[in-house]
Amino acid sequence: MRSIYVDKAIPRVLLTKAVAPHWPGFVWTPLSAARVADLPDPPLPGPRWLRLRNEHCGICASDLSLLFVRADPSIAPAALPANTRFYLGHEAVSVVTEVGSGVRRFKIGDRVIMDTHSAGANCATLEIELPCRYCAEGDYHFCVNKSAPGPRGIGGGFGDGYVTHEMAVYPCPPDLTSDQAVLTEPFSVPMHGVMRFPPQPGERVLVVGAGIIGLLTTMTVRVLCPGCEITVVARHPYQAEFAERLGARHILMGHVPYTAIAALTGGQYFSALLNKGVVIGGFDRIYDCVADDYTLYNSLRWVRAGGTVVMVGSHMAPIAKIDLTPVWYHQVNLVGTYGHGMNEWAGLRKHTYEWVFDRLRSGEFTTDGLITHRFPLKEYRQAIATANAKKKSRAIKVVFENA
């Protein structure tokens, strides 16, 4: 079993964090925290476990954060004892090649989409009879028993296959194309976030970031809330062009002046000595699909009093020197969203993937042009370099294809 993973070995993590920004190829050296390994095929740990062969897997920014150690080892989740090895690749579409004697959901040959495998164990995969409150509701990402004793999955999407519990993957509808299947997980991230914190008709919505998640957030807002006016902040011209095609009415490029925010929203901009300023009467709702120090700082000052900033992006490092005074001074709602889970819409509650399947089948979600680069697994270095240099490669989504 070939697999690409990152170990939480602090000396190698810190060395990679120091060297990789100047020499990206360092991650492939023996001194880095990453490994490309041919692991022995493990036996199935129990009767409800599966062996899978990967067909497709997208490269996510969170994979790159772990690989190049942009993620900070001081963040809260890193304290969990189960988080010691991170198998890269969670946007995986795979085929079942072996089933345990107790498997009920799948048979050999079934196609599946990775669900909670990359997030670690939960009550379902540990087969705990009395699940915690989160697992009982289907929100397995927040399981309180993550670090309880029991078998863990081995391998991930950046490899030829993996071993996991049957409850850690999700059935892939046979009518989905390969592109639709591999983009289901990326689509689920904005679907989960927008369904939890939807804008109202007529609201002015800002999407910060025009990478794959920003573009899919733009599409999701347009589909779920067609009466909104959408503005997108993009870094590169090719991203701006794509965002406009997906329904953005306004595009702002790069480092956006506060005066431009005020002009678009009909607000007022005020600044002072030693103060970057603030917009009074800004956007109703902001989906920050980057959520780093810079974008979150600005988002809190660009949203109107009583408005909402949703952190869709997953910045895996502490955010320093963020001015939180808008949270109390303007009663701004700052909320987060993570991955996918269970979502309720129009009185119906079901898994986020099911909501995505519905929109893919209806044609409201399109995959056209989103996958810009495809590589076989053996070209993993070139694939990751392409995903890591978006300005040069004009990449939106880079995918491994093993079929």
Describe the structure.
The protein has 403 residues and is α/β, with parallel strands linked by helices. The protein folds into two domains: 213 residues, Quinone Oxidoreductase, Chain A, domain 1 (Alpha-Beta Complex); 151 residues, Rossmann fold. It contains 13 helices and 20 strands. Strands 3, 5, 6, 7, 8, 19 and 20 form a seven-stranded mixed sheet that branches. The chain has a six-stranded parallel sheet with strand order 11-10-9-14-15-16, with helices on both faces. A hairpin with a 2-residue loop joins strand 12 and strand 13. Helix 5 crosses helix 6 and helix 5 crosses helix 11. The longest helix is centred in the middle third of the chain and has 13 residues. 44% of the residues are buried. The model has no long low-confidence stretch (mean pLDDT 94).
| CATH first level of the largest domain | Alpha Beta
The CATH architecture designation of the largest domain is Alpha-Beta Complex
The third-level CATH topology of the largest domain is Quinone Oxidoreductase, Chain A, domain 1
Poorly predicted parts: none
Gross morphology is globular
Give the termini distance in whole angstroms: 16 Å
Taken together, the total number of domains comes to: 2
Main sheet characteristics? 7 strands, mixed
Helix content: 25-40%
Number of strands: 20
- Superfamily at the CATH H level of the largest domain? Medium-chain alcohol dehydrogenases, catalytic domain
User: Approximately how much beta-strand content do the residues carry?
Assistant: 25-35%
What's the average pLDDT?
94
- Helix/strand-derived class? alpha/beta
